[in-house]
Structure formats: structure tokens, C-alpha cells
Write a structure and sequence with these properties.
InterPro entries: MethylTrfase_TaqI-like_dom (IPR011639), N4_N6_ade-DNA_methylase (IPR050953), SAM-dependent_MTases_sf (IPR029063). The chain contains 39 helices and 32 strands. The two termini are 55 Å apart. Helices cover 42% and strands 17% of the residues. α13 packs parallel to α14. It is globular. The chain folds into 5 domains: 3-133, no CATH class; 139-266; 285-611, Rossmann fold (3-Layer(aba) Sandwich), CATH 3.40.50.12420; 627-846; 863-985, no CATH class. It has a 9-stranded mixed β-sheet, sandwiched between helices. A hairpin with a 2-residue loop joins β21 and β22 (671-672). By secondary structure, the protein is of the alpha+beta class.
């Protein structure tokens, strides 16, 4: 089998992602990097969205060196090699040290797993998910080795964190010089070193420190300076570094792989991860600083720096400030883009000249600025910049290069909120193009009477802005909110900001005043929401409690009105490609545009945008016109509140001591087991209103079920309960209908839908409901619903009073309950479809952790596609009113479904719906013939293709049942109608 035979068998060519060396630059920098870094070059690379997925080689030379380089490059999961007609498939993410080879996946019998459709639908990656585990990749192994060595230096040899960090930084830098084949003149002879040469120097403590001084004198700059504790570095401590470099087992038992690491292609992300390890878990918990995954950095710089260069074709300077720079990963990536832009615009400048070296230093000195109060972080950031400057020079030129002094000129060890520090004066004079970063997410200290610098800053600004109608505010001492606002002090008219912050900033009930100020004083251009994929985004973080993230793109308004500013809101949803490769897969329906004033008027819309769209907003807005449950409770004077709390305060139990306790586990949907236990406590922290424990009450558990329903049950016996239960009490039978109406409402499908789209925590961090949100649910008097709930309660009672085995609620009873609610609120067919879609697909994926791949595909002539089609048929039939004929052709294949909506004269009228079987390749060629040549993975995973021709319009989507639900039909229909109206106006 030849390599061309393989391309044909897999269905790969240049139209769908196959890239050859001669056109790599046109494909993107990542693909170009693959061709440049590997020797020999691959014959071709298959890529999706500029991400390399498969390397193809035909009889390559030096397989051992090639395998090591591919693994170190850490970019490509699959390598397919043809040698003498034999085919072998390798795992590019796993290197077997003893075999000097990549891990073998299989031979030509496995090729069918790598066909185009299996690659782009994710089927391939689902099958090989375990083999491609992160724990085999070079960055994981490298960080594990660094982590172990650092731990030994600190714990066994009493080095300070700073000294251990500086020592390891010097080791990494020297290995970088060795792997780049930079000649080192230490000892009088200028030559290329080996790792063995370096180890021989480290074996003598005096020689080692003389060598470190040599590096400092030769390269200048601020390269991991030692502190006063460097005299603690013993010969034994240096021997740990020798073991590390030699690739032997460390004292921890961990095998070092430094002998196979290649630091000449060290990834930038490694530096950021090193920073995370350097500060350690304890300091991370204290400061709230988190490492930033490279793919988020690349996304932000692509939307800022790259966009700036696209709009300014002759410019190569772009000034960037990171106010919480950490390892400097944003500034390093920005600097890379600036240097590459400079290289593009100065093709005649010799890359080996002194002038070029000076230009590189100027690009760094004039464009990147960072602040962080952690000195170790600043050291890593400067080191990262230095490596970046070296990456663009030849080894011989590096020998004469002197690093720029960046400490206290570009990088400042300081608190961003300290208004008296020198950086304020220096940076305020600079016109920044962008302020970007990932500020700490930690809440401030709660020490009584002591204000953190960021709190002092907010107080200062509040006094300064005393005449403003919308007052500055942050909630819960959230330092990230203060960062969002503080950047305005360094903003000019052209300055745009992009910060990664916790998503809770947009939803937390207590952050309302912050959001009001933010919306009033800043233009928000983009919101990139990552809450639904929070576990995947920070899966390498030290912190086991993974917080949700959002990227905010915005700029200071300088007193202009922000009402009409348009915000593009994108929410990223889980996919196989994101989990494995951090490729963003964004459905068209997950991109919304909203006026800023709408968010000012309806704060809850922030949450609706996360999982819903404008149809959901319209529906929820209509529901908000009804009386709320909370308003009904006030109107009728119903006593309500949570149960007692235990704690340090000692309040007498009093008359409550005669009651028994009902535990939350015995409160079930529509029923509460009367399984009371004695209560022996004599004192309570908070007793609450004693009336809550007596009489007829509806009990509601604090948590929600895994279907996002409240758990509520009516009881008429006296008992105690804790604060995880809320009670609503009535004084007489007149209130029974209200209690049962509330009970049924809170346990309905409509409530689940409402909670998903309105509750601040659900699908963001924890699946919980707060009473202030729960009781905003609409209330309407509904005797029918009350009777349905009463019948459910009666049907659940066991035959034996003492039995703990109760009957279950039947599906038919739940249907009656839901239908009663729908009639009460006049829920339309379109609104019912929204509720059904949320309960059937959205809630299971985010709450029950059901993978989207578990949802079935659509079979030929399946009724669900008929339902989708009929929504279009009904709409256009009413539009044409018999003047035209409207019909739908459904093309069905295993991977793609297409619908052609045809408009014709009445005399050529045909069947309303026609099913046609097609194979995948035919559908693909049809899409290309319709003008969609640039097919990417997005087309077949979560994105649709749609368009207009003379006599028809069409839509293609992946063959996934959830994508052809009636709720999406209403959305798709509106998109087509808007396009038709727009075309008519033009």
C-alpha cells in the first residue's frame, strides 16, 4: 500500500484538511511549525481548524530521532508511516523510552478507524480516548519531573521556594542552550555542550556557581536571580539536578525523562504550568492565582492582537498590559505575534544582524508590560520572554545576545491596586492597545477592620465618583471584579480589555450592583462563556474545585451611553474535540447578539443566554408578567421560612423540645415519610419562627433533583426540621389549593426549564436552588392542578401505615400535571418544544453528566424529522395561502442529514415531504457544489450549513437526533425568515 492509497482509503485530500509542505504557511502557524520542527518533514499533515491531527510519512529516515521529536512537539496525536508497503499507526502522545519509539496503535487493519467521517464526527477520538491520555504527553511528564525535583530540593535540602525555583530555571535555560546547539564559552573553550558537560560542572559546587555567574554576565537581564539563601545549595542538592538531567530515578522513585526531552522546542504552555507548580497549591489557595491553559491564551490573542494586525496592515507594534501576569503567558504569546508580524513586514532585514537583535529587544521593551505581586511569577515571566527572543535567533547569534533589562521597566513586582507604586506613573503614560489577562479569582481577606488594597481602591473610587448615579460596587470582596474595573485607569480611547474571570460574576445574586456599574460604564463587545466546559478547561489545575470561567471583551466608555452597544455572546458546549484537543465547537444557536440595555433591564438574561436563546427570553419574559410565588405568599400572609440551625449560639429549645425531628432524606416528591426520630438537643443556634414546626405545611428541600425539579411534600403533623428544608404554612383549609398548586409547579417540567434558564448556579458551578430564585416562579390559581397533585399524593400512600415502601408517581400523572400547568399559562406549541428540548437534552448533559454521544442518530423515515419539517410546512403554507406549493426533500445518510425546502407553482405540486437515501460522500460533494468548499470539523460536529438557491433553500446538520428537535426547527425557521426579509429589503 502506498501513501496515496492511504489518502484515498481514508477519504483525505486538500479540500478537507490534508496539508502538504509547500502550502503549510497558507494553512496556519501551527501546521507551519510542524513542518519546520520535524526532521525529516512529514509528507503531509491532516488538520482540522489549523490543529494537526495526523502526520503521514513515506519511508522516513532516522525513525528513532523522529519519534522523539514528534513526542516533544506535543501537537499531533496520530502518526501513520508507510515503509516498504507496510503500514504502521503510532500514538504521537506516548513515547516508550526503552524502545526509542512511539507507542504502536496498529497496522493497516486499523486504517478504517481514521476515515474522514470518523475523524470529524469524533468517532475516532472516542475509540482511542484512553490511549491518548494526557498523562503520557511530554508536558505532563516534564512537569512531573520538575515537580519531584523541586519537592526534593525544598523538603530534603532546606532550600527556599525562591531558590529552588531559580535553580531549576537556570537548569532549564542551560538545557535550552544545549538543545539549541548554542556554543558555551565557560572554561575558556567555546563549544557545543552536551548534557554530560553540564553535569560535570554541576558535580563541583564552586564550578556550578561560577558557571551561573558566567550566564548572568554573558546574557545580562534578570535571569532567575538567587536570593540570600543561595548559600544553602549544597553539593548534595546539585546531585539531584544531575540525576534529573541524566534521566535516572529521583529520590521519589519517579523516573526522570530529561534525557529524552528536547528543550529546543519547549512549548510556551510548559512555562505557565511550571509557574503553577512553583507557587504550589497552598499559595494558589491563598492568592486565587490559576494557570491559564494555552488554548485560552491563543483564543484571546487571536481576538485582540491578531485582529489589530489585520486592521492595521503596516503596523507591527501592539502595546499590551497584563495586570496579573503570572508566568507571562499572555505577554509571551503576544510578543510572538508581534515578532512574527515584524518579520513579515521586514523581509529584507537580515535575521543574523545586530540590528535584528536590537529590534527584537525593542519589540519586547516597547510592547509588553506586566504586573504581579509574586516575585517568583515575575521571574518566570521574564524568563519566558527571554526564551521567546532566543527562539527567533540562530544558535550562533544567540552566543552574542544580551537580554534586555525588563524588571522595573516592563515587569513590576507590585499589587495592581497600590496607587502609590511607581508603575502607576510609568504605565499611565502609555497608550495600550490591549489589557489582557487572567486575574486572581480569590475573595479578599475577611479580617475584621483590615481592608485589602483592592478594597481600598474601590472605596477611593467610590469617593471620587460620588456624583455618579450608578455607584461602583463589587460583591463578596471578589478581587476579579475589582480588576475588571481598575483597568479603566490605564485605558485610552483605543484601549480594549479581555480578562478571564469566574463566570459567577455574571450570575451571582449578590453581584447585581457590580453588573449594573459594569454595564453602565463599559462597552461590552463579546462574552465567551466556558461554564459548560469548566471541567475540561482547568483539568490540569492544582485546585480540585474547578470554577467556571468566562472571557469578557470590553472597553471603558468614558461617560458615553452604553445602552445601544451590541454584545456577541458565545457559550461553548461539551464535545469530544474540546475534551481531547481544546478545539472550540460552537453551534450556530450558541451565538447570540444582545443590546446592552436589555441586560440592564433584565439581569436574569445573563443566565438565559448561557443555555437558551431569544425564543427562551421571550417565553420567560412572558412568564415574568404573572404573579410570583413570593408575591402570593405575601398576599395571603402565609408563614414561610427555613428550619433551625445548629451552631455556637445557645438559644433554649423551649416548647420545640417536645417535637421529633424529620430528616431531609425522608422528604420525597409529593410525599414525606413520617419516620421521625427523637430530638435531644437542649439549645439551638437559630430557632426560626416556632409556628413553622406546627400545622399544615408544604415542605421543600433545599437541593434540586437530578432533573432540576424541587422536591416538595405536604404534611399535616408537627415536627422539627433543619435549615435544609423550607416550609410554607397555611392556617386553614382555604390555603390547601395554593399549597398543592405550588407543590405541583415546583415539581413540573416547566420548573426545570425555568431553573435551567434563570437560576444563577445551575450549569455554572453547583446544581442548587435558592429560595429567592425558586419563589420567582410564576403562580396562578389552578384548581385542576391542585386536584392532580392531591390525586398523586393519594396514589403514593402505602397500604400499611408503617411501610417505608411507597408507590411511585406514574408517567401519566406527571403528564397530567404538566398539561395542567401548560393550560394555566397558555403555553404554545413552540414554547412546549423549548421545555421539552431543555428537559430531554440540555439538562441531562449538564446535570446528569450524560455525554452527547449517547443521544441517538435519526433513522431513515424517522418521525422526528417529519415533525421538524412540518413546522416549516405550516409556516410557509400560511404565507403562500395556496398561491405557491411548498415541499421538503429530506436527504438521509449515516452522518449527515440535509433538507431542501422547495417553492414551486401549484400546478407542479408534489408530496409535502419526500425521503431520499444518500451516502455520505454524495452529500459532501453536494455541499461543496453549493459553494461551501471550506469544510472543517465544525460542519459535522455541531455546526450546520445553510443557504439559498433560486427555487429552494437548504440546511445540512450532523445526523444527531437532538439537532433536529422541533425547538431548533423554530429557531432555524426564524433565521431563514430573517434572511428572506433582509433580502427583500435589499
Amino acid at each position: 500500500m502506498t501513501i496515496k492509497d492511504i489518502y484515498l482509503k481514508l477519504g483525505l485530500d486538500e479540500t478537507n484538511g490534508l496539508c502538504f509542505a509547500d502550502n503549510s504557511k497558507a494553512t496556519g502557524k501551527k501546521i507551519d511549525k510542524v513542518f519546520q520542527a520535524l526532521d525529516p518533514q512529514p509528507d503531509s499533515v491532516f488538520c482540522l481548524e489549523e490543529k494537526p491531527f495526523i502526520l503521514f510519512y513515506d519511508n522516513p529516515r532516522n525513525r528513532d530521532g523522529l519519534f522523539k521529536a514528534i513526542w516533544n512537539l506535543n501537537e499531533t496525536p496520530i502518526v501513520i508511516i508507510v515503509e516498504n508497503s507496510a503500514v504502521n499507526i503510532f500514538n504521537g502522545f506516548e513515547y516508550i523510552k526503552d524502545n526509542f519509539a512511539l507507542s504502536l496503535i496498529g497496522s493497516d487493519e486499523r486504517l478504517d478507524d481514521f476515515t474522514y467521517f470518523k475523524l470529524v464526527t469524533g468517532e475516532t477520538w472516542e475509540k482511542y480516548n484512553e490511549l491518548l491520555t494526557y498523562k503520557n504527553r511530554v508536558d505532563y511528564k516534564l512537569l512531573e519531573n520538575i515537580k519531584d525535583a523541586r519537592s526534593i530540593l525544598i523538603d530534603s535540602y532546606n532550600l527556599t521556594n525562591h531558590t529552588a525555583n531559580a535553580l531549576l530555571g537556570k537548569i532549564i535555560f542551560t538545557r535550552y542552550l544545549i538543545d539549541r546547539q548554542v556554543r558555551i564559552g565557560f572554561g575558556g573553550e567555546l563549544k557545543e555542550w552536551t548534557s554530560a558537560d553540564f553535569c560535570s560542572v554541576l558535580a563541583n559546587r564552586e564550578d556550578a556557581f561560577t558557571f551561573f555567574k558566567y550566564l548572568e554576565d554573558k546574557f545580562g537581564g534578570n535571569l532567575f536571580d538567587f536570593d540570600d539563601s543561595s548559600n544553602r545549595i549544597s553539593k548534595e542538592a546539585l546531585s539531584i539536578l544531575i540525576d534529573l538531567l541524566n534521566g535516572v530515578k529521583l529520590n521519589t522513585g519517579q523516573l526522570s525523562l530529561f534525557d529524552i526531552f528536547d528543550f529546543s522546542i519547549i512549548p510556551v504552555e510548559f512555562i505557565s504550568n511550571v509557574y503553577e507548580l512553583f507557587i504550589g497549591q497552598q499559595e494558589q489557595a491563598t492568592t486565587g492565582s490559576y494557570y491559564t491553559p494555552l488554548f485560552l491564551v491563543e483564543y484571546i490573542t487571536s481576538q485582540t492582537v491578531q485582529q489589530y494586525f489585520k486592521s492595521n496592515s503596516t503596523e507591527y507594534n501592539c502595546r499590551i498590559l497584563d495586570p496579573a501576569c503570572g508566568s507571562g503567558i499572555f505577554l509571551v504569546e503576544g510578543l510572538r505575534l508581534i515578532i512574527e508580524r515584524f518579520n513579515l513586514l521586514t523581509p529584507n532585514l537580515s535575521r543574523t544582524s545586530i540590528e535584528y537583535q536590537n529590534q527584537l529587544k525593542s519589540l519586547a521593551e516597547n510592547n509588553i508590560f506586566g504586573i504581579d505581586k509574586d516575585g517568583s511569577a515575575i521571574s518566570v515571566a521574564i524568563f519566558s520572554v527571554y526564551l521567546t527572543l532566543l527562539d527567533y535567533q540562530n544558535p550562533r547569534d544567540i552566543e552574542n545576545f544580551v537580554f534586555p533589562q525588563l524588571l522595573d521597566t516592563n515587569f513590576f513586582v507590585s499589587d495592581f491596586f497600590d496607587l502609590d507604586k511607581p508603575f502607576n506613573r510609568k504605565l499611565s503614560k502609555i497608550t495600550f492597545n490591549y489589557i489582557i489577562g487572567n486575574p486572581p479569582w480569590k475573595r479578599g481577606a475577611t479580617q475584621k477592620g483590615v481592608k485589602e488594597p483592592f478594597e481600598q481602591y474601590i472605596s477611593f473610587r467610590k469617593k471620587k465618583e460620588v456624583k455618579k448615579s450608578v455607584k461602583i460596587a463589587i460583591s463578596n470582596k471578589e478581587i476579579a471584579q475589582a480588576f475588571i474595573l481598575r483597568v479603566s485607569d490605564f485605558s485610552k480611547e483605543i484601549t480594549n480589555s479581555a480578562l478571564i474571570v469566574t463566570s459567577k460574576t455574571l450570575y451571582n445574586l449578590k453581584a447585581l450592583n457590580f453588573r449594573r456599574y459594569f454595564l453602565n460604564d463599559f462597552f461590552i463587545s463579546n462574552v465567551f462563556e466556558l461554564s459548560p466546559v469548566r471541567r475540561e478547561v482547568f483539568n490540569k489545575s492544582n485546585d480540585p474545585a474547578i470554577a467556571p470561567a468566562v472571557i469578557l471583551f470590553y472597553k471603558y466608555a468614558f461617560e458615553e451611553s452604553t445602552d445601544d452597544s451590541l454584545i456577541e455572546h458565545i457559550s461553548v458546549k461539551p464535545s469530544r474535540f474540546f475534551s481531547l484537543f481544546n478545539l472550540f465547537m460552537v453551534n450556530r444557536n450558541d451565538i447570540k447578539t444582545v443590546r446592552q440595555k436589555l441586560l440592564k433591564d433584565h439581569d436574569w438574561l445573563w443566565k438565559t443566554l448561557l443555555y437558551g436563546h431569544y425564543l427562551d427570553f421571550s417565553f420567560l419574559l412572558r412568564l415574568s408578567s404573572y404573579q410570583k410565588i413570593s408575591e402570593r405568599l405575601i398576599e395571603k400572609g402565609y408563614l414561610n421560612g427555613v428550619g433551625f440551625q445548629m451552631g455556637e449560639d445557645e438559644n433554649p429549645v423551649g416548647v420545640l423540645g417536645t417535637l421529633q425531628l424529620l430528616e431531609p432524606r425522608y422528604v420525597k416528591p409529593f410525599r414525606a415519610h413520617k419516620n421521625l426520630i427523637p430530638f435531644t438537643e437542649q439549645t439551638l443556634h437559630r430557632v426560626r419562627d416556632e409556628g413553622l414546626y406546627f400545622g399544615k405545611r408544604l415542605l421543600i428541600k433545599k437541593g434540586l433533583s437530578n432533573k432540576l425539579k424541587s422536591v416538595a411534600a405536604f404534611i399535616d403533623y408537627d415536627c422539627l426540621f433543619k435549615d435544609s428544608i423550607t416550609a410554607i404554612k397555611i392556617e386553614n383549609e382555604d390555603g390547601m389549593d395554593d399549597l398543592r398548586t405550588i407543590s405541583g409547579s415546583l415539581q413540573s417540567d416547566l420548573f426545570s426549564y425555568y431553573a435551567l434558564n434563570r437560576f444563577s448556579s445551575i450549569g455554572v458551578e453547583r446544581e442548587q436552588g435558592f429560595n429567592e430564585e425558586r419563589f420567582t416562579f410564576p403562580f396562578i390559581e389552578n384548581v385542576v392542578l391542585s386536584k392532580v397533585v392531591s390525586q398523586i399524593e393519594l396514589s403514593l400512600i402505602p397500604e400499611s401505615e408503617n411501610s417505608l415502601i411507597w408507590n411511585s408517581v406514574s408517567n401519566r400523572q406527571l403528564e397530567l400535571l404538566n398539561e395542567s400547568i401548560y393550560r394555566s399559562f397558555c403555553v404554545t406549541s413552540a414554547e412546549k418544544s423549548l421545555i421539552d428540548y431543555a428537559n430531554k437534552y440540555v439538562i441531562p448533559t449538564i446535570i446528569q453528566k450524560v455525554d452527547i454521544s449517547s443521544f441517538p442518530s435519526v433513522q431513515f423515515e424517522d418521525g422526528s424529522l417529519d415533525e421538524y419539517s412540518k413546522i416549516f410546512l405550516e409556516k410557509f403554507s400560511s404565507v403562500f395561502k395556496g398561491a405557491k406549493s411548498f415541499s421538503v426533500d429530506i436527504w438521509h445518510s449515516n452522518h449527515i442529514i440535509g433538507m431542501f425546502f422547495r417553492i414551486s407553482e401549484m400546478e407542479t405540486q408534489k408530496q409535502p415531504i419526500t425521503w431520499i437515501k444518500k451516502d455520505n460522500d454524495f452529500v459532501l460533494k453536494t455541499i461543496i457544489s453549493l459553494g461551501h468548499e471550506r469544510l472543517t470539523d465544525k460542519l459535522f460536529i455541531q455546526k450546520d450549513v445553510r443557504g439559498f438557491e433560486k427555487d429552494f433553500f437548504y440546511i445540512f446538520k450532523p445526523n444527531e437526533e437532538r439537532l433536529w428537535h422541533p425547538a431548533l426547527a423554530y429557531l432555524d425557521l426564524n433565521v431563514f425568515l430573517d434572511a428572506i426579509l433582509k433580502t427583500g429589503r435589499e
